[in-house]
Specification:
The complex is a heterodimer of chains A (114) and B (113). Chain A is globular and about 40 Å long. In chain A, 0% of the residues lie in helices and 53% in strands. Chain A has 114 residues and is mainly β. Chain B has 113 residues and is mainly beta. The chains are: A mainly beta (114), B mainly beta (113).
Amino acid sequence: AQSVSQHNHHVILSEAASLELGCNYSYGGTVNLFWYVQYPGQHLQLLLKYFSGDPLVKGIKGFEAEFIKSKFSFNLRKPSVQWSDTAEYFCAVNAGDSSYKLIFGSGTRLLVRP
Amino acid sequence: DTAVSQTPKYLVTQMGNDKSIKCEQNLGHDTMYWYKQDSKKFLKIMFSYNNKELIINETVPNRFSPKSPDKAHLNLHINSLELGDSAVYFCASSHVGGNSEAFFGQGTRLTVV
């Protein structure tokens, strides 16, 4: 069965600090990988996704993620965080070309101090 | 225009009651989902439908019955509500295909007292 692990449950940073959130998945076949963000009191929004091609993907608001197949990882990065990045971040995976099941990690709560 | 809309946004009800949450998407997607987010923010899929057909039922108690009258709507009916059903329920939709982005509704915060 597929699963997704996010190692950092709570992260606190000061503005302008760099961010890296870890995500590992378990599935041996072709996967599609996503990072979603949930701002306080809001619904989930897509930050970025990877399904093929360049393993370094760029998303909205200066976020990027790197797919490392050998490590089953898809870590999220941002060089310089802002107070407005305070949110819950979810890594998600589904398998193959016609998967109807998006599996989420447990989420990482990011607090950026001004 | 809201892409995926859910009603109501908040629902407070007593144990044992029956309630429904409605979901509609105007994105032309074929696939719709219900997710449950617990108090620790963990998101777990409950159901997925494709073209009104049930594709996935993730061992959800049969008190939960989804209904899809057409591919733009996926409603969730819950019978005999229990305290443990308190959570935020998110509806989502996407095109068919694993690399398609899922669009989420605003969520329905259900509180069972």
